[in-house]
Amino acid sequence: MSLRSVQSGRRRLARLAGATLAVALCLVFFGCGRTGPESFWEPTKDDSAGIKSAIEANKGYFRTGLAELAMTLCDTVLPGTTATILRKELLGNPFKQRFRLDKLEHVLYTDSYDLKYTFIAGLDSLKQETTCTVNLAETIPGMLRMHAWEMTDSLRESLIIVPPAETLRLPYYASAMTPRDTVIEKVITGASTDGCVLKKVNGEWVLWKMAGGGRFYAPGPADAPYILQYFLVSTNRTDTVTLRPDTLHYGIQRFFSVDPAEHQLLTFSVGDWVKVSNLTTNMGDAQDYLYFNGRRYEFRDTVKFDSVTPGLYRLSLEHIPAPVLWEVQGGYNATVWGVPIRVVGGAQ
Q: Per-domain residue ranges for the chain?
């Protein structure tokens, strides 16, 4: 037998051994009798229209919860910031104009833009279920309106010589505030991300699952403050709301069934209350607000579900750097987590 024939036979044996090993690994991974991953399914025009209709019918569940009904009173102290940091800022940096506010309102132009989304449809050949995972993304325009009751006055222009021959003219402001009655507006532009899963039931696309939370970043994810997790303390329990798709806690990157019988969404009864505690972020010099059903709450406030109709709502937490609320210049910068919750009538 020639050397070439021996080498050829060895290569055939190697290929056969490799194929056998691949089959064995597949059996170990999938297990005997298990089906492979679900296959992708290409929707028809009617399916695309049905998916769009289902999203439009439920888009209220995916809007960020920042919009208030009107400009309302807010904390004028900003605990932990004004008494220390702002006083140092006034004395140490006179080139920025600052103010104190007593009213605040987010105005979001929700009627001027469409909710954009992409989707991937899949077919579970074992369960014979057709589902559609939808990623929702939108750029939200709006305005942050603040009523200033105190503000620093401009004293003069300062000339600063920058070698070799550049001259800068900067306004110079007082180190103490004087009474004012004016409205300061900052443009809101931010990116909102959310998600859901639709299921085809009797030929109709219906909402099946919702993401544990929508995230809003202004001006964008790279420039907004970072939230890691917080505790949601309620009448008879404490829930950990975390960024990760955690299976032990309520992860806002997981999907949860909207079916009340499955009890997957955070559920509260009419008459219950909730408070937020142990907020973990990357920015301590910030102010936090809660939003529920068109109303803004201070971070230390208790949100009560005593005057709402049972249904699905969005409980939102806004983490906003304090300078946004006391510096006249600069834009809106914040991160918002909007967690879907279910309010039911009677005891859980």
A: 38-344
